[in-house]
Specification:
By secondary structure, the protein is α/β, with parallel strands linked by helices. The protein is built from 23 helices and ten strands. A six-stranded mixed β-sheet has the order 6-7-8-3-9-10, with helices on both faces. It has a four-stranded antiparallel β-sheet with strand order 2-1-4-5, covered by helices on one side. This is ATP-binding cassette, subfamily C.
């Protein structure tokens, strides 16, 4: 296992760029002194002497310095852009993987946990003016020092003003400390409702739910907007105060400076220079107050990503194991949440050999679907162990075990890509012959070829309007079969393929074909289906095995006519359930 935080490692890898960023920011801030020094030289040297040559010489130097300022500012912008891109490249794939395996342990909305969204918040922060102000903040003391050199009174006034501006910024953070997360959750809730309403548009229209749902959505919208207003009201008020205060402070500096000139303590040019320097001290603070929400969101995203990658260290790929054959072993496997028995498993043990075909029967909440998920590694057992070819399923390298597993869930969707990509599982080494063979086995090849672009037809998420529901389901089945997997698990396939004509014949044909190739096939169902294509039966009730053995031994040879009645009379077996052998 990796023992380091890949987010922290990605940040450390950018330390060179971050160091260069602050060096360039330092040069930019030094060059910002140009205007103040130029102002002093004009009032104290050029005007008293009346020398145009001196003026033009100074002006040429100023132009050159501002050219360097523009160059360094461009370099800083490009450094920030590259820093954000490199962080995205280093963390994007892992954040996407984390989003796919989004844990079910937290009760907060999935969208609120999305690492990709948090990475996007950091990217937006790095490209915002507020972050440039963050880079400028360490160099504010340079301008303060210059003010104190001009006169201590002026430096003290600006220092007090900066302290007040920082207090305003801290107040803004305090006032919005809880509002940011609540507002974000409200926005995500509204977005989730909009997304799922679109997904369910057909039944909503059929039951004429649009008006009532729109009223409910409007309530969510009003709540989201209310929290949005609460989030922005304090920072907006404080930003307005900060800008007004800065203008008043600069006018106060001009007033105090004029008094000091009258008293002969400073020159006239120093008045304008002090005003410019005061603006440079307060400008970064003003920008941070104005962009505080972005800074706060970025900082929150940074903390969440650091914590996420500290708690979810990705497993290092193990050494390559022998080619998977499809031997599956459940040993005293239990799964479920304490105090909730539904959909769980209790002390389930059985073995399947390559070429076996298992039909898992049971009613609602029997645990069939969770058994299917455990078999393919989507879920992890609470106790016990699931082994694939005598190796714990979690210890297989993903690149090796992935092609060895074919999984057809009870609900099928397609990703927004071509049909070829969907069937090939986006694997670059999948050949066209493999994709076509899988599509033919799922009986969807001819339907795909009838499309204008064939296998290169692009579908939207969920399938798109160019495909029927039955075709989407068959493409999902082809995706499960494309790599000639050693294990094929179909969770309630007659439900998954409910829109397909001859669904039971397709499932039976797939089961026979894959078993003939030596693959292990597991099919879950509420009612006996394709029993003739499978050689073993496992009956679940309330998460426990009622019976497990050879199909002929349990049902006799005159199946499937007597199967349904036979299932109801099977005795419940205890923890000593015998393991069937042979096929």
């Amino acid at each position: 296992m990796q023992t380091h935080n890949i987010y922290a490692a990605a940040l450390r890898s950018q330390l060179g760029g971050i160091g260069l960023l602050f060096v360039v920011s330092g040069l930019i801030n030094i060059l910002l002194l140009t205007g103040s020094i130029y102002m002093i030289q004009i009032y104290d040297r050029v005007l008293p002497s009346g020398s145009v040559v001196t003026l033009m010489g100074l002006f040429g130097i100023v132009l050159l310095l501002y050219c360097f300022f523009g160059l360094f500012d461009l370099i800083r912008q490009r450094l920030l852009a590259r820093l954000s891109v490199r962080l995205d490249l280093a963390l994007g794939a892992e954040c996407f993987a984390a989003w796919i395996r989004n844990d079910e342990k937290n009760n907060v909305p999935a969208s609120a946990q999305e690492p990709l969204q948090q990475l996007g918040d950091i990217r937006r922060l790095l490209s915002s003016p507020a972050f440039i102000s963050v880079c400028d903040m360490p160099f504010v003391p340079i301008f303060l020092l210059a003010l104190f050199i001009i006169h201590p009174w002026l430096g003290a006034m600006v220092l007090g003003g900066a302290a007040l501006a920082c207090a305003v910024m801290a107040t803004g953070r305090y006032l919005t400390r809880n509002t940011i997360s609540i507002s974000a959750n409200q926005e995500h809730t509204l977005a989730d409702m909009s997304y799922h309403s679109r997904r369910l548009a057909e039944p909503l229209r059929a039951m004429r739910m649009q008006d009532d749902l729109a009223t409910y959505w409007r309530g969510l919208q009003r709540s989201s907007l209310a929290w949005h207003q609460r989030l922005h009201a304090p920072p907006d008020a404080l930003a307005s105060f900060s800008k007004s205060f800065r203008l008043m402070l600069q006018s106060s500096i001009l007033t105090v400076g004029a008094i000091l000139v009258i008293q002969g303590q400073i020159s006239a040019g120093m008045i304008m220079a002090a005003s410019i320097l005061a603006g440079r001290v307060l400008a970064p603070i003003d920008q941070m107050i104005s962009g505080w929400r972005g800074v706060a969101c970025g900082w929150s995203a940074h903390r969440h990503l650091h914590r996420h990658f500290s708690q979810n260290i990705p497993a290092r790929e193990g050494v390559a194991l022998p080619e998977p054959k499809g031997r599956i072993s459940f040993t005293a496997v239990s799964h479920g949440i304490e105090g909730r028995a539904e959909n769980g498993l209790k002390d389930v043990s059985f073995d399947l050999s390559p070429g076996d075909g298992l039909c898992v029967l049971g009613g609602p909440n029997a645990g069939k679907s969770i058994l299917a998920k455990l078999a393919v590694g989507v879920a992890a057992p609470t106790t016990g162990e699931v082994r694939f070819d005598a190796v714990n399923l979690v210890r297989w390298p993903s690149a090796q075990i992935g092609p060895a597993i074919g999984y057809l869930p009870d609900t099928i969707d397609l990703l927004p890509a071509t049909i070829f990509d969907n069937i090939s599982r986006f694997r670059p080494d999948t050949t066209g012959a493999q994709v076509i063979a899988a599509a033919k086995l799922a009986r969807v090849h001819h339907a795909i070829m009838a499309l204008p672009d064939g296998y290169m037809s692009v579908v939207s998420g969920g399938g798109g309007s160019s495909l029927t529901q039955g075709q989407i389901q068959q493409i999902g089945l082809a995706r499960a079969l494309v790599c000639n997997p050693a294990l094929v698990v179909m969770d309630d396939p007659l439900r998954s393929l409910f829109s397909c004509p001859d669904a039971e014949q397709i499932v039976a044909e797939v089961a026979r074909h894959m078993r003939d190739r030596g693959s292990t096939v597991v099919i879950t169902a509420r009612q006996p289906c394709v029993i003739s294509a499978l050689n073993k039966v496992l009956v679940l009730s309330e998460g426990r095995i009622r019976q497990f053995g050879l199909t002929n031994d349990i049902f006799g040879r005159a199946f499937p006519t007597r199967v349904a009645a036979k299932v109801q009379t099977l005795p419940i077996l205890g923890n000593g359930t015998p393991r069937a052998s042979g096929g």
